[in-house]
Amino acid sequence: MIQLIDVSKTFNGKDMVVDNLSLEIKQGELVVLVGESGCGKTTTMKMINRLEEASSGTIKINGKDIKETNAIDLRRNIGYVIQQVGLFPHLTVGQNIGVVPRLTKNDPAKIAKRTIELLEMTGLKHEDYLNRYPKELSGGQQQRVGVARALANNPDIVLMDEPFSALDPITRCQLQDELLNLQKELHKTFVFVTHDVDEAIKIGDKIAVIQDGRIMQYDTPETILKKPANQFIQNFVGQDRLWKTPEMLRALDIMDDNYDNMKAIEVKDMVFVQPDTPLSEVLKLHEKHNLSIIPVVEQGVTVGVITEPSILSLLAEIIPGSEGL
Amino acid sequence: MEKYIYYVLNNWDKILFRSSEHVFLAFTAVALACLVGIPIGLLINRNKQLANFVMNGANILQTVPSLAMFALLIPLVGIRDKNAILALFLYGLLPIIKNTYTGIRNVDPAITEAAKGMGMSSFQMLYKVQTPLAVPVIMAGVRIATVTGIGVATIATLIGSGGLGALIYQGISVMNYPMMISGALAAALLALLTDYILGLLERLMTSKGITTK
Lengths: 325, 213
Ligand SMILES: Nc1ncnc2c1ncn2[C@@H]1O[C@H](COP(=O)(O)OP(=O)(O)O)[C@@H](O)[C@H]1O
Ligand SMILES: [Mg+2]
Hints:
The structure holds two protein chains of two kinds.
Chain A: E1 2-10, E2 16-25, E3 30-34, H1 41-48, E4 56-61, E5 64-65, H2 71-76, E6 78-82, H3 93-97, H4 99-103, H5 108-121, H6 126-129, H7 139-151, E7 157-161, H8 169-186, E8 189-194, H9 197-203, E9 206-211, E10 214-219, H10 221-226, H11 231-237, H12 251-254, H13 279-289, E11 293-298, E12 301-307, H14 308-318
Parallel strand pairs in A: 3-8, 3-9, 6-7, 7-8
Antiparallel strand pairs in A: 1-2, 1-4, 4-5, 9-10, 11-12
Helix pairs in contact in A: 5-7
Chain B: H1 2-43, H2 48-63, H3 66-77, H4 80-105, H5 109-117, H6 122-152, H7 164-173, H8 177-205
Helix pairs in contact in B: 1-4, 1-6, 1-7, 1-8, 2-4, 3-4, 4-6, 5-6, 6-8, 7-8
């Protein structure tokens, strides 16, 4: 677990780049720091591996103040991936991955085995890539090696600063998917910085939206989309973003809660759904039972209904140009 | 033309001897300049002010005309080899320090940031990352120092240090053109040959990951 407690950072003694920021990241979570360029995401992240020292406040990892650990030992146990990748061009892929294990004096045979494992884990055939130099790889392949290198010492925590921002959209999407798979498999704690809201929503277990060095909202992507804490967040994520993420829609989001005969609906023998039933299931029920109306029931009380018009009005929200039909 | 060939055939032992003197002067000086200049170039990367100070000093050394340099060193170390080697050493310092310094400084900051973030100490970063990446630039400095050294060494004869300059100046003073020309050509050839050999060495020392071809 990573805890930032009232952490501030200033470079010149007056402008607060990070301003009294508190954040708790649980073991195994993928937390995204998102915000506009210059809002302090990178600085926040770099304080976790002490590439920057906090001006005030405390950062703890598993309950222990990071100032009590030697900065170099701390970094060797935290994976670090950056946008420009930063592979060592004079070393082969295999040597790049083995850098930290060699620094910590692991057995060479073990390092070799681990290197092959990591290459396969990040989707690169070791026969083809082990002995190549970074310049012989595409941008996407380089960043795969960057991720493998960060995982080499089997750290509990991996910091990633806009790791996919320089990649073309297709490669970016692939690497995002693979990162999600890796996290599922490895249960590591990832802190991921991006300025891309779509990316944050796609990969984050939780998202911290940062503005001017302060956290505006820290919650799950779904809550941030559905219940933005303030106008800034609403503008930042964009009002239509929820509708572009249909997998997050639930019965509650599209139901009609002003239905005239709500009380008259007899739930007993009917098919009904819960407020948090995913939209996909609602649609399946609708299809299966050919219902013109599905009540949304919370603890025995009908709180709304889903009707064909409510589904149609959702379509109008999703399809560009048809707003306000 | 025949005169020249005749001269070389009859005097090859003399030419070889003068060449060996020449090589001794230039190589000793450049080797010392590497021994001193490379560590200085690596070290001054830690401090900008120190770097400026050292670079200015080396720049000034470089502007002293060669004959004046030999003359200025006479009160310090007298004449002959000591003087010549010291002068060539001082000339060699600038390109070696400068190239080492810039070679290290120009390593992509993303690479040093990654190295630091992964937990390398600044010393590990220097010898595992920055120096290997700076090899081509450092070697370029060594090559400049060597070629300059071989050129300037031709004047060392004026302070009694021999070398191919002896043939050139003797040739001029007794109007023996074949002697003069063979001395000059030998010095030029020597410079080309050493530069070629240093080029091979550079290629050996440079990772295939950072060569352009
Ligand atoms: N080393 C530094 N010295 C001075 N100012 C810095 C330094 N690093 C970052 N800053 C400033 O801090 C602010 C936040 O930077 P950063 O954390 O990199 O933002 P982000 O990653 O969100 O784009 C910016 O205004 C930037 O100019
Ligand atoms: Mg940044």
